[in-house]
Amino acid sequence: MTREPSGVVAAIVPWNFPLIMASWKFAPALAAGNSFILKPSEKSPLTAIRIAQLALDAGIPKGVFNVLPGFGHTVGKALALHMDVDVLAFTGSTAIAKQLMIYAGQSNMKRVWLEAGGKSPNVVFADAPDLRAAAQAAAGAIAFNQGEVCTAGSRLLVERSIREQFIPLLVEALQAWKPGHALDPATTVGAVVDQRQLDNVLRYISIGREQGAELIAGGQRTLEETGGTYIEPTIFDGVTNAMTIAKEEIFGPVLSLITFDTVEEALQIANDSIFGLAAGVWTSNLSKAHTFARGLRAGSVWVNQYDGGDMTAPFGGFKQSGNGRDKSLHAFDKYTELKATWIKL
Is 150 a residue of the active site? Predict the structure, then answer.
């Protein structure tokens, strides 16, 4: 049984973490012996171009590591349809991920590995070991990187018996996340990527209000006089899973708070999503944590923390959050073909 390089790997990566998303793909692909084409987002091409120069400086032969900037609907589509691309790796929205699968089928049935959207549940049980720590983590899970994170803990499930105690802790914790200029050391929340994204986040906030959710923090554009696309981290209470803000990926700092009564109900709500990228669980009961984690349809489960793990842990999703895994030794599976050779002596 042998592993062999797949051949030509093309990767399409997003703008929210442009360098680290690229490195999660080009490092194992190159190490496995493939040539590589990186298509960065048109909103964030400069780090990719710099890496290409560093690759040449490091002695990687010309043509082995390539960067091809451009728009998704032109350059990205061309790579997905190209007959000489053997593997396509992608991080981005679920809608684009589905389109790339179609392009692969229309061309050469290239392997397609997708890390797509998320609507990750962060579940706080009444027996959580430290409610203040859980509240601080919940605030960070939605406000970090302006909520422009595929694993953002955008659905916060709180057990009803601690709800009145937990909400003030959550609102207080969110106050530490203040929008400001990205180069100011005091800033904890920067601007969303552009005006289009800002308008989309504000649209979702309007939808939340229209559908009956209660806005209890944030919800406004801020620092407008600077010309920047800043928005206050936002919390909606009284959310149900049937509401748009609980179902669709907003990709902004908008948190939906959902109340539950039983472990079974929490699991049903958590799994009631087309996505399955990540989840958080807060409990002092290790048996409950294990059982609940096994029941969650998510690629990463973090217990009494949010966004844990390192390069040794695989990362990827269930359901419409994608397939395949970045990071860890499992990443090599995506960029190699498994050959079985039988020899008769």
Answer: yes
